[in-house]
Amino acid sequence: MKEFVSLKPGTLLSPVPAVMVSCALPGEKPNIVTIAWAGTVNSDPPMCSVSVRPSRYSHGIIRDSGEFIINLCGEDNLRATDFCGVKSGRDVDKFSACGLTPVAVEGFSAPAIGECPLYLACKVKSVQPLGSHDLFLGEIVRVGVKKELMDGDGGIDFGKARLVGYNHGVYYQLGRALGFFGYSVAAPDVLQRRMEKLK
Ligand SMILES: Cc1cc2nc3c(=O)[nH]c(=O)nc-3n(C[C@H](O)[C@H](O)[C@H](O)COP(=O)(O)O)c2cc1C
């Protein structure tokens, strides 16, 4: 059976990340907004995008400060990630409500979130109104990774981060590694060694 059911056009690309984006105006309290419409859009220079509805409190902060920090969500950060996506910084200090630690990032007014496994600190390069959302394109100028995630060879052991993915309203644990870049054509000894390491 290779039949498809035709649905109304919608945002069903899955899985997507659910990230906590921290932002702040100079000298003011920082805020956090949960974003699922986030993506990697360029390698050199490294760039990311976040799509934010103009009605969000964070929208004006990101627009006026010209920066945002993407904090990846591990399993331990999931409750906070959900909370920061249902409460507004207009009404609540999300850092203190979630017991999150602001960590200073050089050259940024916004802090990173100390409890998250990895952050990407971005400077806004352009803002593109799309309709419901504005797309902020940002250049990643600083990256921070939790020490315990570094494997001995300068790589990142993402397995330890226990990252969360998001599929159309539901959070999922990413689970176990099934393969690696190029595994379909890797030599058998390389395949075995790498897969052992990924277990
Ligand atoms: C899992 C999840 C993903 C979300 N993704 C987005 C998104 O990509 N863009 C957006 O504008 N709002 C998104 N939201 C909604 C905002 O996070 C939410 O409206 C938040 O309360 C806004 O906070 P603020 O007013 O402090 O900026 C998402 C919420 C959740 C729970």
Structure description:
The protein is α+β, with helices and mostly antiparallel strands. The chain has one domain: Roll (Pnp Oxidase, Chain A). It contains five helices and twelve strands. It has a seven-stranded antiparallel β-sheet with strand order 3-2-6-9-10-5-4. A three-stranded antiparallel β-sheet has the order 1-11-12, with no helix packed on it. Strands 7-8 form a two-stranded antiparallel ribbon. The longest helix is centred in the last third of the chain and has 11 residues, at about 190-199. The model has no long low-confidence stretch (mean pLDDT about 95).
The CATH architecture can be named as Roll
Number of DSSP E strands: 12
- Biggest sheet strand order reads 3-2-6-9-10-5-4
Shape: globular
Structural class, judged by helices and strands?
alpha+beta
Report the radius of gyration as a whole number of Å.
18 Å
Tell me the name of the CATH class.
Answer: Mainly Beta
User: What about the largest sheet?
Assistant: 7 strands, antiparallel
Number of domains: 1
Write the layout of secondary structure elements.
Blueprint: E1 16-17, E2 19-23, E3 31-35, E4 38-42, E5 47-52, H1 57-65, E6 67-71, H2 78-83, H3 94-97, E7 102-103, E8 112-113, E9 118-129, E10 134-145, H4 158-161, E11 164-167, E12 170-173, H5 188-198
This protein binds flavin mononucleotide (FMN).
